[in-house]
Description:
This protein is 39% helix and 13% strand. It has helices spanning 15-18, 26-33, 37-45, 62-70, and strands at residues 24-25, 51-54, 57-60.
Amino acid sequence: MDATHKHDTSPFFDAARDEFLRDATVAEARKILGCGATVMYAMIKRKELSAYKIGSATRIRRASLNTLRSVPFGSE
């Protein structure tokens, strides 16, 4: 392929910039909060974390994670 027909290979979004803007997977949220999957799903069930489904995948709203992280431990 010559230079005039090259495809743009730039990413659709900049992962480094957008990482904290998009909603998190359960695995990502577990790393952020430092807890296990059982605790994550219990928090979702108790509405402590705002989440939604895309097919069978669960996404946790980034704003919900940020709010939870800003609350001092033991201040419920």
